């Protein structure tokens, strides 16, 4: 866990027309926190308030600096914030390069050439530098906007659904850049999204907003399988687990990971560094349950699990919440038909074997190790 | 010699009047246009209407009130001269009022078209309010400024009624082009009237064309 001084502390309360907001949460001093919720839940308002673009009552502290409390309200241009808006909003009267350095030129240290080159490289902006902002594609514009935001040396990066205006192909093309960006930053990132796929891929922690209130907050892997929140019972339920790479077989491309004492085998195209921690993604529909102890099967992964709970998930299915081994630290979900659940007489507390058909990496980039 | 100065003097005087008026209008009109574009006050529509009044008022009505405003009980008295009427300064004052809407309206529209987002972006990139105005608002509103300046200049060149009411016909001081043409026609000097009128016709055509081009090419350059 990061030092307290790096933490982001947000407590906001107020009205905006018909809408009332009352949220309080903290975010770690590094890593990505998703602000998740449907439209109208207050996600954007929270982000705007942190940047000082919207004013609510409350308290905002970032990296030990009080940006807002009862006695003060720091104006937006005095907050070391990087903001990526939903639309790239590039300055039409400036070149791509001038757009990139707009914020940096206004910091005390000015434009740092090395940092500029690094950012251009990281976000693949080189070929865009001499193009007119009007001739960039949506994904290219958003990459310039991200570069512009981080070059202003922010203490926090706020991203307001930066991918939502892009089509799927553009989204897939830009996601690796976003991941690389997040992995390279030592500052907290708040990432607003209504797309769980994006969140699973990018976030470490999540704050779930509903009608202007915090419905849940915590590490993503816990919130996703929290029975009270309903993510687990959705048909496309997914769990995020993390494990250490302990071996990699170059001949068949299968990596072996340690997950709380159990082994997970998965295909990796690139050789992973042994000992690194990786985030895995397991879809509930890829998990089946069996009492048979040994099976001749094409399925690589067989895990000892304990049933934590059984919840209805639609008409024909149940979501079975599973703890890895006997502890509940690492949990995931199996989506099985109601008929099978009844036939097997599954019970809470029972220990059995989960067969996992497919495990994928949640992120292609390695992130800083975090608990 | 006599004829050429009778033709040239009004031209130079008119250009000087239009130039000074346009400069003043840009200085006065920019903050006014900014306020009209961004204020949430209910009073702004009233102010906007006042600015637009010269568009519909007969120039004689405006000229009449200006005559009084510039006189001993108005600005003239205030500055210790009997009256500003029938002077170049008086013409500048009248022209500023008369051409105000032609400058303020395009600039206001340009400011409104920018919207709030570029300023928010600039604010999150450490730009102070003044910085945002100079480095974002002014360049993005440039087509509006150009259109406003061109229209304000052209409209001042073309004014007649107001000049006649407050300026009279003093050579080198208030005898501007439109008044000179009127004069030449009165004295049946059609050749001089032709030269000046044809010149103004071409000028007006070029002005309107340039406004169209500014709007099309600069205005649309912004996505």
From TrEMBL, chain A:
Sorted UniProt keywords: ATP-binding, Cell inner membrane, Cell membrane, Membrane, Molybdenum, Nucleotide-binding, Translocase, Transport
Q: Which residues form the Mop domain?
A: 296-365
What Gene3D superfamilies does its record include? 2.40.50.100, P-loop containing nucleotide triphosphate hydrolases
Q: What GO terms are given for molecular function?
A: ABC-type transporter activity; ATP binding; ATP hydrolysis activity; molybdate ion transmembrane transporter activity
Keyword Membrane: yes or no?
yes
Q: Where is the ABC transporter domain?
A: 2-236
GO CC annotation, single: membrane
The entry assigns this protein to a family as follows: Belongs to the ABC transporter superfamily.
What this protein is called in its record is Molybdate ABC transporter, ATP-binding protein
The organism of origin for this protein: Fulvimarina pelagi HTCC2506
Automatic annotation (TrEMBL), chain B:
Q: Where in the cell is it found?
A: Cell inner membrane; Cell membrane
Residue stretches spanning the membrane: 12-37, 49-71, 83-104, 133-154, 192-214
Q: Name one Pfam family in it.
A: BPD_transp_1
- Cellular component GO terms, alphabetically? plasma membrane
**Residues annotated as domain ABC transmembrane type-1:** 11-213
| Tree of life domain | Bacteria
**Which keywords label this protein?**
Cell inner membrane, Cell membrane, Membrane, Molybdenum, Transmembrane, Transmembrane helix, Transport
Q: What is its main location?
A: membrane
User: Could you give a GO molecular-function term held by this entry?
Assistant: molybdate ion transmembrane transporter activity
* Membrane topology recorded in Swiss-Prot or TrEMBL: Multi-pass membrane protein
- Keyword Membrane on entry: yes
- Family affiliation: Belongs to the binding-protein-dependent transport system permease family. CysTW subfamily.
> What functional role does this protein have?
Part of the binding-protein-dependent transport system for molybdenum; probably responsible for the translocation of the substrate across the membrane.
- Name listed for the protein in its UniProt record: Molybdenum transport system permease
Per the UniProt entry, what species is this protein from, by scientific name? Fulvimarina pelagi HTCC2506
């Amino acid at each position: 866990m990061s030092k307290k001084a790096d933490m982001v502390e947000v407590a906001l309360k107020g009205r905006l027309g018909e809408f009332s907001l009352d949220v309080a949460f903290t975010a770690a001093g590094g890593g990505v926190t998703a602000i998740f919720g449907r439209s109208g839940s207050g996600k954007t308002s929270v982000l705007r308030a942190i940047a000082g673009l919207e004013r609510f009552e409350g308290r905002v502290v970032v990296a030990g600096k009080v940006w807002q409390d009862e006695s003060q309200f720091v104006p937006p241009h005095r907050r070391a914030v990087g903001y990526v808006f939903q639309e790239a909003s590039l300055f039409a009267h400036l070149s791509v390069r001038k757009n990139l350095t707009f914020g940096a030129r206004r910091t005390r240290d000015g434009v740092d050439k090395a940092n500029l080159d690094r950012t251009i490289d990281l976000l693949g902006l080189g070929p865009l530098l001499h193009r007119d902002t009007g001739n960039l594609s949506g994904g290219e514009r958003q990459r310039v906007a991200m570069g512009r935001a981080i070059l202003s040396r922010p203490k926090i990066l706020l991203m307001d659904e930066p991918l939502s205006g892009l089509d799927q192909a553009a989204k897939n093309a830009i996601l690796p850049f976003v991941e690389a960006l997040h992995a390279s930053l030592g500052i907290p990132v708040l990432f607003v999204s209504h797309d769980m796929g994006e969140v699973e891929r990018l976030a470490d922690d999540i704050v779930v907003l509903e009608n202007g209130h915090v419905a849940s907050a915590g590490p993503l892997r816990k919130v996703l399988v929290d029975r009270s929140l309903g993510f687990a019972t959705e048909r496309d339920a997914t769990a995020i687990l993390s494990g250490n790479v302990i071996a990699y077989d170059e001949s068949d491309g299968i990596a072996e990971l340690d997950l709380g004492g159990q082994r997970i085998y998965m295909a990796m195209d690139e050789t992973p560094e042994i000992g690194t921690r990786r985030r895995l993604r397991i879809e509930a529909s890829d998990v089946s349950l069996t009492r048979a102890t040994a099976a001749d099967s094409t399925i690589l992964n067989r895990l000892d699990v304990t049933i934590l709970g059984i919840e209805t998930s639609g008409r024909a299915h149940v979501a079975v919440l599973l703890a890895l081994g006997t502890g509940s630290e690492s949990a995931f979900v199996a989506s099985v038909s109601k008929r099978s659940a009844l036939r097997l007489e599954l019970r809470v507390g029972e220990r059995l074997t989960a067969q996992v058909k497919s495990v994928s990496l949640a992120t292609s980039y390695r992130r800083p190790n975090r608990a | 010699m006599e004829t050429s100065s009778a033709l040239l003097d009004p031209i130079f005087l008119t250009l000087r009047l239009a130039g000074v008026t346009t400069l003043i209008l840009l200085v006065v009109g920019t903050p006014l246009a900014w306020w009209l574009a961004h204020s949430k006050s209910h009073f702004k529509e009233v102010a906007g209407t006042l600015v637009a009044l010269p568009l519909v008022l007969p120039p004689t009505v405006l000229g009449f009130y200006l005559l009084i405003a510039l006189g001993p009980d108005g600005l003239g008295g205030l500055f210790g001269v009997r009256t500003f009427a029938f002077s170049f300064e008086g013409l500048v004052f009248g022209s500023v009022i008369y051409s105000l809407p032609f400058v303020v309206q395009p600039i206001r529209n340009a400011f409104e078209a920018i919207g709030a987002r570029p300023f928010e972006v600039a604010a999150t990139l450490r730009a102070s309010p003044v910085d945002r105005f100079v480095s974002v608002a002014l360049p993005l509103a440039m087509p509006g400024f150009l259109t406003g300046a061109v229209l304000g200049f052209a409209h001042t060149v073309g004014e007649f009624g107001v000049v006649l009411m407050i300026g009279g016909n003093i050579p080198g001081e208030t005898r501007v082009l439109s008044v000179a043409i009127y004069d030449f026609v009165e004295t049946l000097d059609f050749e001089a009237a032709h030269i000046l009128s044809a010149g103004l016709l071409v000028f007006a055509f070029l002005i309107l064309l340039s406004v169209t081009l500014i709007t099309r090419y600069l205005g649309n350059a912004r996505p």
